[in-house]
Design goal:
By secondary structure, this protein is an alpha/beta fold. It has a single domain, classed as 3-Layer(aba) Sandwich (Rossmann fold), CATH 3.40.50.2300. Helix content is 42%, strand content 13%. It has a four-stranded parallel β-sheet with strand order 2-1-3-4. It starts with a strand and ends with a helix.
């Protein structure tokens, strides 16, 4: 059985493709890539069909991650096939929970940084779009820090499902 995770930010060109790439690498390193499907989308469709922001691609590739991506908009109908929807900030969390067709679907939506035991206070991953490259580096650091805890949670679900 495949466990499906989708990362969601605003336009699906900065934060969520970064999280998708990092988490896909983590699942592969853990030997779970055959049981975990990793995806991403945006709450809006402004960039649908576009590649990731060039700064996202640059930071990902400089750190050894895949930078290939095509943006798309999250659809409410996807809740049926997804096990976990990871919001990159509290605005996305609220929008996704409002979009969820059922209470059960709304419970699938979680903040990425809630999986980072070192995160304190504000759990949002700031949008780096309007800033410089340093914002993209900071975003990657936050995504990587949360990915380990997320991997542990997903591994528990996958192994629990497989047992």
């Amino acid at each position: 059985m495949t466990y499906r995770v989708c990362f969601v930010c605003t336009g699906n060109i900065c934060r969520s493709p970064m999280a998708e790439s990092v988490f896909r690498a983590r699942t592969a390193e853990a030997g779970l890539d055959d049981r975990v499907e990793v995806d991403s989308a945006g709450t809006g469709g402004w960039h649908e069909g576009d590649g990731a922001d060039p700064r996202t691609v640059r930071v990902l590739e400089e750190h050894g991650y895949e930078g290939e991506h095509t943006a798309r908009q999250f659809q409410a109908s996807w809740f049926d096939r997804l096990d976990l929807v990871i919001a990159l900030d509290s605005g996305h969390l609220k929008a996704l929970r409002a979009l969820a067709p059922t209470d059960e679907d709304a419970r699938k939506v979680r903040l990425l940084r809630s999986y980072d035991p070192g995160a304190a206070g504000d759990l949002d991953v700031p949008d780096p779009y309007y800033g410089g490259l340093d914002g993209f580096e900071e975003c990657l650091e936050m995504v990587e820090a949360a990915s380990e805890g997320l991997l542990d949670a997903v591994r528990d679900e996958v192994e629990g499902t497989a047992a």
